[in-house]
Amino acid sequence: MEYLCHILVLIAIYSILASSLDLLAGHGGLLSIAHAAFYGLGAYTSAVAAVRFGAPFLVGVLAGVIVATVLSFIVSMPSLRLSGDYFVIATFAFQAILLSTLNNWTELTRGPLGIPGIPRPIILGWHVQSQLDFLILAAGFGAFAPTVVHRLTSAPFGRVLHAIREDDVSARALGKNTLYFKVTAFAVSAGLAAMAGSLYAHYVTYIDPTSFTVMESILIISMVIIGGAGSLWGPLVGAVVLVTLPEALRFVGLPSAAAANLRQIIYGTLLVLMMMFRPRGLIGKYSFAK
Questions:
Q1: Residues 32-88: pLDDT tens digits?
Q2: What is the spatial distance between Cα 121 and Cα 104, in angstroms, rounded to a whole number?
Q3: C-alpha span between 60 and 44 (Å, rounded)
Q4: Please, which residues have CB within 8 angstroms of residue 34's CB and are 6 or more apart in sequence?
Q5: pTM of the model
Q6: 249 contacts: CB under 8 Å, gap ≥ 6
Q7: DSSP 8-class letter at 290
Q8: DSSP 3-state helix, strand, coil percentages of the chain (rounded to 5)?
Q9: Beta-carbon count within 10 A of 28 CB
């Protein structure tokens, strides 16, 4: 039962990450390689707030969201003036900068040693200790993120975002401030990713920079592609597939090193097959192959 709860908690966390990236990449057509960076910002901000300052869980989550949102504005204002591959490269650069900062700012992050002893959440007297308790908490957060994305994309904001995805020049010609909409989508996406990071930090109670590398960003992108971009349920489907797949390999009996390599091969093969034969993903509305 605890193992099943653990898998479901991971699915909930990754569904938040995939849903938040889907707002930017699926609905807005802006592919970011920096999603793991904002995920890490939320995790580290919440961890430092809790371990060093004794901040309550919700305060740490809020602090992580604020830090990620502010940094997203700083990153997005210049980078969103770029388009296509140049924007992707700009987000990759931010991902590399943040990872280097986490590894080298040892006074704050403890560098490669990571931050241990992160406390489990306490919310209004509710001590979240058991796996089932954390699953309930993660499910609540996991429902919040797609709800925010759905409300935004169903509103006039979402229709403008879709227009920008299809033709940015035409949207500007209609008098829309496309930079405002893209920056807002980037900020909301970063804030939700930071929320997932805070949840992750308080779940595993130990974090280090290896959890927030560019490979983590690629994993989140893979979830959006496989599940389907622009769909309410697509990110959840992608999270289920790519979280349960490596867990299934545990029962094959392969050595851990071989299982890790096989997992990467399967991820790559799945992505190639999806892009070739089902570019909209399993239940997506938009294609990344356009």
A1: 999 999 999 999 999 999 999 999 999 999 999 999 999 999 998 888 877 778 889
A2: 28
A3: 9
A4: 75, 91, 92, 94, 95, 98, 217
A5: 0.93
A6: 259, 262, 263
A7: -
A8: 75, 5, 20
A9: 27
